[in-house]
Amino acid sequence: MLRPSPPPSRFPLHPLLLALGLGAAGLAQAADPLPPAATGAAEPLRLRPSRLLTPPGTPGQESKPALVLSAKKLDSQLDQRTQAEGEAELRYGDLLLRAETLSYDHASDLAQAGGGVEVSRGGNVVRGPSLQLYLERFEGEFVTPSYFFSQTGGGGQAQSLRFLDAKRIRAEAATYSSCPAVEPGETPAWQLTAQTLKMDFEANEGLATGAVLRFHGVPILAAPALSFPLSSERKSGWLPPNVGLDNRSGFELGLPYYWNIAPQRDATLTPFLMSRRGVGLDSEFRYLESEHQGQLNLAWLPWDRVADRKRWALNLANSGELGRDWKYRLNAERVSDDDYWKDLPKRISSPTQRLLGTDLQLNRTRSFAWGEATAYARVQQWQVLQGTDPLTRFASPYQRSPQIGLRMASAADEGVLAGFIPWGRRARLEGSLELEYNRFDLPTDLLAAQRADGSIRGGSRVHALGHVSLPMGGSAWWLIPKVSVNAASYSFDRIEQGLPSGMVNRHASRTIPSFSIDHGWIFERETRLFGRNLLQTLEPRLLYVNTAYRDQSALPNFDAAAKDFNFDSIYTENQFSGVDRVSDAHQLTVGATTRWLESERGEELLRLGLVQRFLFSDQRITPDGQVLTQKVSDLLLLGSAHLSRRWWLDGNLQFNPDAGRSVRSTLRARYSPGPFRTLSAAYRLARGQSEQLELGWQWPLFGAAAAREQLRSVNANSSGSGCSGGGAWYSAGRLQYSLRDRRFTDSVVGMEYDAGCWILRVGAERLSTGRAETNTRLLLQLELVGLSRIGSNALGVLRDNIPGYRQLSEPRSSNRSYD
Description:
Blueprint: H1 14-20, E1 67-70, E2 73-77, E3 81-92, E4 95-105, E5 110-121, E6 124-134, E7 139-143, E8 146-149, E9 154-157, E10 160-165, E11 168-176, E12 190-200, E13 205-215, E14 218-228, E15 237-238, E16 242-246, E17 250-254, E18 257-262, E19 265-274, E20 278-288, E21 292-304, E22 309-323, E23 326-335, H2 340-343, E24 355-367, E25 371-384, E26 399-410, H3 414-418, E27 430-441, E28 456-469, E29 472-473, E30 477-495, E31 503-521, E32 523-529, E33 532-547, E34 561-562, E35 576-577, E36 585-598, E37 604-615, E38 635-641, E39 647-656, E40 661-674, E41 677-686, E42 690-702, H4 704-716, E43 728-738, E44 743-744, E45 747-754, E46 758-768, E47 774-784, E48 788-791, H5 794-801
């Protein structure tokens, strides 16, 4: 069975199956025990009603359940026939049958019921005027029944329903809807009808003929025959259509077909039509073998009428084992042209839409008494989508072709590896060593500026990274002295000035030692704050680093980048990631954090922290290339508060003591007084670079009282339809505004109407694709609660963009969104 991601929901009548197949796949629940005999006055024994029953016995052990009959009047002939009248009730295992009159023939095992017949099994309920049912083999017929399923909160009616056996059902003129009951002669807001419905639970297959889906009486989907799965298992068939509209491609309609190839393989083929660009095909193939798993996506547009060329996108993600403990991973993404990310962005999965990678990795890890060793190899290539606007172009990173290495590390506790978590054991030496060879080069379509005089086209590097440490500590403190070394040897190519096509070979090497001491404590005390019993912690930390200076100006920089200056990176020994740049340092980082925790639940209510770095000598290897003479670094402050269950506050500040002002700051607040009510705001400042405001929300506009009543009804009454008669309007969105550019950037605004059994989502999403370019997309989605969603993926957009967003149908729908 495929498991990397849940399979898409098939269209599907499978909620209808749940209703009509009430007993065939019912849930097992323990029967209520008989009450003990009362002392004193005799009181008749009574069975307490229960919707979910399971015969007693060992789970998995087959046994014939007991049959219990009760009524106001019982007439029985031993082992022949029993007649019950007046509130008759029959229990047989997990089956509960109620009726005004009920007769049971012992010899034929036939139960006949009439007058307000109700059958409950597995939480599902079927009602009708009359029923004939062979109990043990579960064969019989229900005349003009109505039904309800607890799992989906919906139900319907049928002209007749036949239980062929415990695994098969046939219904004639069947309907299904999760909308509440309406007046006779009226139809629900949405309804699915089928002339004939056949269901085979053992084969996990259902077949509906003459299926039509109507919304407010208007047919919106029809098919002469539909096959569908009867559970969460996968089944081949057509899925609900995809609908989209944006300013670049126009109206888009996609009709996905799901192909269940095998238990470990499946595919989804989606022919689509774009009103401006033409006809194309999206495809997805997934597989999950015993040693290999992966996914392949291919989007194909044979001819784009706007771009006047063919367009395509390929995405491959694959991993597995090759034997002898060797594992591999391949991730590759490629598109047809530089403008693909702007014209067809939803078909690109990379988080960096303009930088698409191809990455093949191979590794093998072996464990030894002293620790473990990992051998690895890697090839990494890039496709850089530059476009024609020179202002938006960027330098391409170097490619690795190849990377080969070996890492060895001594056995260590997780707390030791984390570097600042107290533990309790005797001190011992820890160490690691990394040996690696890399060949670097630039993509063939590299930016012209990277071909400029003096730039490096590529080269080779051999490096060794190693450290030895002696961690020691107790239950409330740690001390980790460490000696490390970063050594590298280069052989690189340089384009000489005035000779754009001439290259000469260059060699260089350097070795940089470093020493550090990481020391910290965790103190605790009980206290009270705002009338609450709390546990307060005080967590001071010191990091001393002494790294030798080596001139690196004549060395290439293939993979090093400056780290962001924040509360985590300030406690690192090197200001650069990668290998090629190592910052010289003679410094001490001093910081402390204090937290207030609820004594009972351990929930963090308040956190405050500050940290600063002190330099004992000037730093010459810096991210901006300028010598750093400032003896005291910027002060970092952070805070977060959750003193009320409705309010969340957090922020951080980078303050420059020399300039007397903040360099960067982030402030965030969120107010959430109840379900489907959230309001968040954020302010972000990077002085001289950006200043941005953000507002996100989900809030009821009209019909809020009805929405609250609906939620209470759903939570309190599991046997109800899960819908209320009144509807509610909600607004949801996120706005980002650049104070520096005085314009809105990436934003989404939407409206949702919750009618109880169906939800309509309408919205617009705006994404910046350049300084003066945007991609605006219209979102339209109709969710039929308990059945399916039709239209664009508005729910996914709202959920991904709005902090604290909650799906309106969450308490009612058994379906979960994976799109």
